[in-house]
Write a structure and sequence with these properties.
Layout lengths: L15 H35 L4 H13 L2 H26 L7 H16 L9 H28 L3 H21 L24 E3 L4 E2 L3 H16 L1 H11 L1 H6 L4 H28 L10 H11 L7 H19 L13 H25 L2
Antiparallel strand pairs: 1-2
Helix pairs in contact: 1-2, 1-13, 2-12, 3-7, 3-10, 3-11, 3-12, 4-5, 4-6, 4-10, 4-11, 5-6, 5-10, 7-8, 11-12, 12-13
């Protein structure tokens, strides 16, 4: 046995040929992702034509709806913000072989925890107020994910099942709270809460489009996650557990402990997304606060090939699909007034299917004799 620490770099790690191979792999992943996006867009245009809309006119109007001016770009970034944060959390958990499908529940519970912190008098100053909300949201998401971690640890329940079931419970918890003790007395239908205090809200960067300072959060998190996964001991252990948990146990890594911590970390990041959305965008809760971000973010993570930096453009792409479809419905042309936004799901679904297919082909090619 060697005295070299398990996490120390080997000579092979420093080999220029290995670094070149890694760069080639990253380039292939980028090309595959771009190819998946291109195929998805072509399928969407084919579906558009099938519904009787002229594809080229729709394509031009779609691009104008997303990139027509600064406010439209900012609006797409507002939607991309929670998708990027949740997608990053899912990418990290999937890298560890932890199948966290509970993004929706952890998101709404994070928002609920942040709202409670704001109205508990913990956010009184413009500097500390947003920080308190973000911390509370992260704790709320981590606590909700901890339930799945405990169920797996002591009852052997798979997290892919428990996390998705906890989504429905979390959504109902928020709905009951909004309809009950948290309902705004000034709201006639008691379907919303009052707004959080101004001191707890994130600063607006482009007020006309709603772009807030929270857009910096996914960028910072992506850089930190990239460095942590590639250059730190906990990141190394996480990747080893994800690649081969049995081998991880043989080299002294507590795979179950790493998986539980990763699930809670993923929940904390997703809860943070809920707090960012509350503090920067909505400023209040609704009985139906779940917006489907938790599920769409899985597609974001898969398109990014579970790479933290790749999550950012992947989230921007999915946000552009959504904002572009909404923009078409707002055009003065009556022909687009009833444009079916469901057509964007054709693109999203195709992108994921092509991504999975290419990944499987790559794995098969790598393992073939």
């Amino acid at each position: 046995m060697t005295d070299r620490p398990l996490d120390a770099p080997t000579h092979a790690d420093l080999d220029p040929s290995r670094r070149a191979s890694s760069a080639n792999g990253a380039l292939r992943s980028l090309v595959a992702a771009l190819g998946s996006v291109a195929v998805g867009l072509l399928v969407m245009l084919a579906a558009v034509a099938g519904f009787g809309y002229p594809p080229l006119i729709v394509a031009r109007a779609f691009v104008a709806s997303v990139l027509g001016n600064g406010d439209r770009i900012a609006a797409a970034l507002v939607l991309a913000c929670p998708l990027a944060i949740i997608g990053l959390a899912i990418a990290v958990s999937f890298r560890a072989g932890v199948w966290n499908i509970g993004g929706e529940g952890q998101y709404v519970l994070g928002a609920l925890a942040a709202f409670l912190a704001a109205h508990a008098g913990l956010a009184q100053t413009p500097v500390l107020g947003p920080i308190v909300l973000l911390v509370a949201g992260a704790l709320g998401g981590a606590a909700w994910a901890a339930l799945a971690a405990l169920l797996k640890r002591y009852r052997g329940a798979p997290e892919i099942l428990t996390t998705i079931l906890l989504n429905f419970i979390a959504v109902q918890v928020v709905a009951i709270a909004v309809h009950g003790p948290l309902a705004d007395p000034l709201s006639g239908d008691r379907d919303t809460t009052a707004s959080i205090p101004a001191a707890a809200q994130l600063p607006q960067l482009i007020p006309t489009a709603g772009l807030h300072a929270g857009i910096l959060v996914p960028i910072a998190l992506a850089v930190v996650a990239w460095i942590a996964l590639a250059r730190t001991t906990p990141g190394f252990r996480l990747r080893v557990v994800g690649d081969n948990p049995i081998a991880a146990r043989f080299v002294g890594i507590h795979a179950d402990r790493v998986a539980a911590r990763t699930l809670m970390l993923s929940g904390a990041i997703i809860g943070l997304a809920g707090a960012v959305e509350l503090a920067g965008n909505t400023h209040y809760l609704t009985a139906a606060y779940d917006a489907g971000y938790g599920y769409t973010a899985i597609a974001v993570a898969l398109l990014a090939r579970l790479h933290p930096i790749g999550v950012l453009p992947a989230a921007a792409f999915f946000a552009a699909l959504e904002t572009g479809a909404r923009g078409l419905q707002k055009l003065p042309d009556e022909a687009f007034r009833d444009f079916p936004t469901v057509l964007t799901f054709f693109a999203q679904g195709t992108v994921i299917l092509v991504t999975v297919l290419l990944t499987r082909m790559r794995i098969s090619g790598a393992t073939s004799p």
